[in-house]
Amino acid sequence: MLENYLPVMMQAVIAIGFAGMMLLMSLLLGKKGTPNATKDSPYECGMKPIGDGAPRFSVKFYVIAMLFVIFDIEVVFLLPWAVQFRDLIQESTMAFWSISGFVGVLAVAYIYALRKGALNWNS
């Protein structure tokens, strides 16, 4: 049984060995840089960096992004069902009722987000 995994283990050992040798060779043969204030400062397209690097965003942007991802993924689950709709309905009505429940949960979540004001930009 072990001989089946021998090629995989050999490849892993060779890959790890190659990566280790490249790191070791870069340490031994590479140039040693001297740090200074100019080289250690961040480069901002020719402008001197002043202030914080990352501006603060409102939580509303993140809430909208999360809602988009959630509803977008749920729409992806609807697509295979829509493609096979005729075949599924001919076999049984269980497919219709299950997707109705799924869309019902989506509708409740959407109404909840509307009532909570998650989609209101003005407030």
Tell me the number of helical segments per DSSP (H or I, 4 or more residues long). Answer: 5
What are the secondary-structure elements, in order, as H or E?
HHHHH
Shape: flat
N/C terminus separation = 66 Å
Q: Helical percent range?
A: over 70%
* CA-atom Rg in angstroms: 28 Å
Tally the beta strands.
Answer: 0
Which class of secondary structure composition applies to the elements? mainly alpha
What is the residue-mean pLDDT, rounded to a whole number?
Answer: 85
**Main beta-sheet strand count, sense and barrel state:** none
Parts with pLDDT < 50 across at least 5 consecutive residues: none
Strand percent estimate: under 5%
What does this structure look like?
The protein has five helices and no strands. The protein is mostly helical. It has a domain at 59-116.
What is the topological layout?
Blueprint: H1 2-29, H2 37-40, H3 59-83, H4 85-91, H5 94-116
